[in-house]
Amino acid sequence: MTIQSTNGQGMDRALWQDTMTGIGTMTAVDEQTAGEAQDGRATAHAPARPGRAAAQLQQIRRSLFITAGGTGQLVGVNLKAKLIAAYGDGYRDKIVLLSFDSTEEPFAATVNDQVVRLEPGTEFFNIGQVPISRIKQNLDRQRALRDRLGAHIDRLPSVMRGNGMKMIRPAALAAYYWHFGLIHQTLSKAIWRLAGRDKVGPEEIDQEQGINIYIIGSLVGGTGSGLFLDLAYHARSLVAKLGTQNEYCTVTGVGVLAQAFPGIGERNLYANGGAATANGSIIHDKGIEFEIFREDNFVKQAQQ
Question: What pLDDT does residue 1 have?
Answer without folding.
Answer: 35
